[in-house]
Specification:
heterodimer, A: alpha/beta, two-stranded antiparallel sheet, 39% helix, B: mainly alpha, Helicase, Ruva Protein, domain 3, 6 helices
Chain lengths: 175, 142
């Protein structure tokens, strides 16, 4: 066994661990990409007597942002979500996840409400159907109601610029 | 103070105890299935061990679905459809999991190969002394 082999093995191990440890273990590839967005029929956050169904969004490219008032990273990404909604590219729908209605409304009053609609998933049951496990999460859904992208964790300006907006523009053109 | 704390502990345990008493057979199935599934919030715990609120919700899902007469496989399919193979502590053998399943054996084979080669090499230099050397060694030993 020559020294060169030992050194090569060591370097290979360092590269393997370097890459492996650099990955985010929370970023589990979602099996939902390319599948129809699960159906929901949820009360609106602002008007409990009204509901929004997934069907109503068919024919539109849209973004679903899962958030909660108890989730600090949601506050962190809020300016990014707000900027995305303000760009007017597509409607951004908020899914308020396992929250208390009063807390959620107060949070929106305090931090601004960028959402076209906010639906209220108090039990988190719809969250389970969407495979939510680390709020905030963001989905891009196309005109046929198919999930095309999912982000687990806060949106960043870089991700929005490099991934989300180009995809949205492409999907709008697709029609 | 201590009494109050004891009461609190009992209050927390009561629902667990009641639930187990309700239908011990069902609870056993829920628990064994929950041990097979990974909690995504705290990734090194199973759904059975974790107390993250999502784990509690998913345990309730398992319980409800089994109660509705679904099979263990139905529940596993439900979880995989939403969270991917990652939730399984025993992932299926697929093209994407090939390295996961074969990697340890490949490393073992590599280790054995290297070991055998080193041992084989070490034996070679033990070979013969020349007659002159042997004579000299005998002389020195005397």
């Amino acid at each position: 066994m020559s020294k060169a082999w030992v050194v090569a093995g060591f370097i290979a191990l360092v590269v393997l661990l370097g890459v492996g440890l650099g990955l985010d273990p929370r970023e589990v590839p979602s099996p939902l990409i390319g599948k129809p967005a699960p159906a929901f029929d949820l009360p609106l956050l602002h008007a409990p007597d009204k509901t929004l169904e997934r069907k109503q969004m068919l024919g539109k490219v849209w973004v679903l942002n899962v958030w909660a008032s108890w989730c600090p990273p949601c506050l962190e990404e809020h300016p990014v979500v707000t900027a995305l909604a303000k760009s007017g590219l597509v409607p951004v729908v908020g899914l308020n996840y396992k929250d208390a209605r009063d807390d959620a409304l107060a949070w929106l009053r305090r931090n601004g409400d960028p959402f076209e609609f906010s639906v209220f998933d108090a039990t988190g049951r719809i969250g389970i159907d969407y495979g939510v496990y680390g709020v905030p999460e963001t989905y891009v859904i196309d005109r046929r109601g198919v999930i095309r992208y999912k982000r687990i964790g806060p949106l960043t300006p870089a991700i929005t610029r490099d991934r989300v907006q180009p995809l949205l523009k492409e999907l709008i053109r697709e029609s | 103070m201590r009494a109050r704390r004891l009461l609190l502990v009992l209050a927390c345990l009561a629902p667990l105890a009641l639930r187990a008493a309700e239908d011990p057979a069902l609870e056993k199935r829920v628990s064994s299935l929950a041990h097979e599934l990974r909690c995504l919030v705290c990734q090194n715990q199973s759904l059975a061990e974790s107390n993250a609120s999502l784990a509690v919700d998913l345990r309730n899902q398992i319980r409800e679905q089994l109660k509705d007469g679904k099979s263990e496989q139905d529940v596993i399919d439900f979880m995989v459809a939403r969270y991917g193979d990652f939730v399984l502590y025993r992932p299926p053998l697929k093209l994407t999991t090939l390295a996961l399943w074969t990697g340890p054996f490949l490393l073992l084979a590599l280790g054995v190969f290297v070991l055998v080669r080193r041992i084989a090499r070490r034996r070679v230099p033990e070979a013969a002394l020349s007659d002159a050397e042997r004579a000299r060694a005998a002389q020195l030993l005397e």
